[in-house]
Amino acid sequence: MGETPHSWNLSNFEAVRDGSDDSSNSPKPWEQPEFKAKAHRTWRSFQRYIWDDPDKPAIEKKFLLKLDFFLLTYTCLGYFCKNLDQQNINNAYVSGMKQALHMGGSQLTYLSNVFTAGYVVGQLPAVILATKIRPSILVSSLEILWAVFTFCCASVKTVPQLYAMRFLIELCEGAFFPDIIYVISSWSDSIRHEKRGGKRVTLFYSTATMAGMFSGYLQAAAYRNLNSVGGREGWQWLYIICGIISLPVGVIGYFFNPDFPENTRAFYLSPAEAELAQKRLFPSAQPAFALYLKSTHHSAYQINVWPTGQSAVGIIVQIAAGMLSDSPLLNGRRWQAITVMQAGTLLGSVIIAIWSVPQGLLFFAYYISFMSAGVPGIYYSWFPDLMPHGHEMRGFLTAFSNIASYVNQIWVSDAVWRTAEAPRFRPGFIWVSVVCVVLIALSVLLQFLEKRDGKRRETVAREAEHVYIEAPGDMQKV
User: Fold this and answer.
1) b/e code 252-268 from CB counts within 10 Å (16+ = b)
2) How does pLDDT run across 73-95, given as a tens digit for each residue?
């Protein structure tokens, strides 16, 4: 009897991957000498740079396609919604919320700190809970709750009420990033030896920049078309629309989130595919550009739309960086991509800190300052290579790294990104310039340490091959 897809076991995967399957001995169409075959080979080489090796066994490509379609689609949508609900406060602030709630001084900064506090508080408990409660249940339920709290933001009457809602939103959102990266890295372990996880994590992370871009367009449309509709202002409609977008994504998570390879019950994965995965297991603090445009008396439409170009730069750069870092050109090395992205932000920050430059150059600086938007995606995709055997450690450090970045935002925003410094934010951009230099140096250091640890592991492996066990009368090599 012929085997059905679900009757495949792990030995079938290994036979196909190792080339022991009989069909692998026949010439492939692209191995022929004709011109058409040469064009086919060129296309397949291009595919290796853009996404994955086209020479993967068909069963393995099908497995990865399922993960990309269900897991990556859901995580990108969820992270987009998270950052959309996070970014909308800036667009609402410059589009009428400031006047409606009588905000003044550095209340936007304080609002950001309350927001960050909720995010920090929610992360570590979420990672701990993810080991007890399935992420498909935990994260999805919290996403539905933050959608509800986003709706509530449209009805606040005072700044303290807005503080409370934003804290609750981030308390729920705090679970999403560390738990989802934990899940993605668990499944990405199944492709880690090929170093193809960078573009997936980077694509996931790029949705944060897309959300910032989309939020500007969304607020501009709400301000133009929905202002005063139903007795609500445009900034209130922004919160309502964001909640409408987030709510169904939370529901999708109950079905698309596969949990971990060792306990998955995803409807789209066969038992053999889950077995395969198990066996292979081993932002700026202030809307600076928008506030600059507001100070120079640009229209509400320009204030909301022009800064989206920063997000466009970030999206293009980080997706390109993810693809190149996985491609044969860089072969999974991450430090070059991080260095180039940080260098772009460094240049932009230095120009803005100088300030007394032509307006065109200042606009250029604001846009290229977003080149480093993709650094976290590359950085987190580096974790499986830096810690190849630390499954739990990667989950912990993902949450810890993210918490540390947000804790830093609390004191950094008060120290160098105060709203009173708008629109120039000179201390802030000086700080960014210093951080860029430090991160470039850190990426070079991590590359050195990764190579050193790799050599040590190779040495240990070679020594293990020459262990002798003493037996009665002689020595036996094992």
Assistant:
1) bbbebbbbbbeebebee
2) 898 888 888 888 877 888 888 88
